[in-house]
Design goal:
By secondary structure, the protein is of the alpha/beta class. Helices cover 47% and strands 17% of the residues. It has a 7-stranded parallel beta sheet, sandwiched between helices. Strand 2 (33-38), helix 2 and strand 3 (59-63) form a beta-alpha-beta unit. The two termini are 27 Å apart. Bound molecules: NADP nicotinamide-adenine-dinucleotide phosphate.
Length: 262
């Protein structure tokens, strides 16, 4: 299947690890030039070099914090300056934040909204004029299953992600006339940097794979395993491709069947 992505240009936020890195890899394999951003320059530069080497694509690292407007504007501008266009924005930067309601301070609520909601708002605002200029494009926002199915102790992330889903849906209608498609992916549990760090923190005996097998059992994932970042990367690439030109305003569960909602 020809995805029709050769020569396109993408920005992937949080592209140094986990799902963002896998998205850069998957897009790069299809001939997309990718600007990736993250805060830790060393991890980012190493990832960009490795993905470029593996795919033969141009992968440009830009150190940036998506909670800072000037940083995210610089990331978008780098893509346009370097490659002359922008076709794809993947709002991926984020981290897990799930606590008991009474434990969460105003500062923690604000930090989560800044990272997950305002990060996507600012990147999208900066990207829209460039997507319009090339006759349309695709925006994919990484969200969490808790946006559709919030549980006890799921905040602040469930609330930030529900706002992200509303943003995605509204934008899909507002930007459709410009041929800009906007979709979301509601992640369940995916192997990634943050889950590896959690395993290291806990200091459980056994390998990381053993931990993933145990977590899949604990959560009761119907497909019986935690997902691979590459599986999400490929879904992102498909949603951005010419094979998905009639898909907009949807948020797809990527959870091995865990969710009780569609
Ligand atoms: N993996 C899962 O099971 C899961 C579940 C639900 C939702 N998600 C969502 O999926 C997305 C990707 O998660 P992941 O598991 O792949 O995470 P990950 O492996 O921890 O990678 C996160 C990436 O985001 C970057 N990042 C974090 N904060 C940033 C900031 N303020 N500015 C710029 N970059 C930032 C990180 O680099 P630096 O730290 O160097 O900045 C890293 O590149 C996140 O939005 C996450 O909330 C993941």
């Amino acid at each position: 299947m020809d995805l029709g992505l050769k020569g396109k240009v993408a920005v992937v936020t949080g592209g140094s690890e986990g799902i963002g890195r896998a998205a850069a890899h998957s897009l790069g394999r299809e001939g997309v030039s990718v600007v990736v951003c993250a805060r830790r320059a060393d991890v980012l530069e190493r990832a960009a070099a490795e993905v470029a080497e593996a795919t033969g694509a141009q992968i440009v690292p830009v150190q940036a914090d998506v909670t800072r407007t000037e940083d995210i504007e610089r990331v978008i501008q780098t893509a346009v300056d370097r490659f002359g266009r922008l076709d794809i924005l993947v709002n991926n930067a984020g981290t897990s934040a799930a606590m008991r309601f009474e434990e969460i301070t105003d500062e923690a609520w604000q930090a989560d909204l800044e990272l997950k909601l305002f990060g996507a708002i600012r990147a999208t605002r900066a990207a829209i004029p460039h997507l319009r200029k090339v006759g349309g494009g695709s925006i994919v926002n990484l969200l969490n299953l808790a946006a559709k199915q919030p549980g006890a102790r799921s905040y602040p992330t469930s609330v930030s992600r529900a706002a992200g889903m509303a943003l995605m849906k509204g934008l899909s209608k507002e930007l459709a006339a410009d041929n800009i498609r906007v979709n979301g992916i509601n992640i369940g549990l995916i192997k990634s940097g943050q889950n590896q760090r959690q395993w290291e923190r806990i200091g459980r005996p056994g390998t990381l794979e053993d931990y993933y097998v145990e977590r899949a059992k604990q959560v009761g994932i119907p497909l019986g395993r935690i997902g691979e970042a590459e599986e999400v990367g490929d879904l992102i690439t498909f949603l951005c491709s010419n094979r998905a030109t009639y898909i907009t305003g949807v948020s797809i569960n990527m959870d091995g069947g865990t969710s009780g909602v569609v």
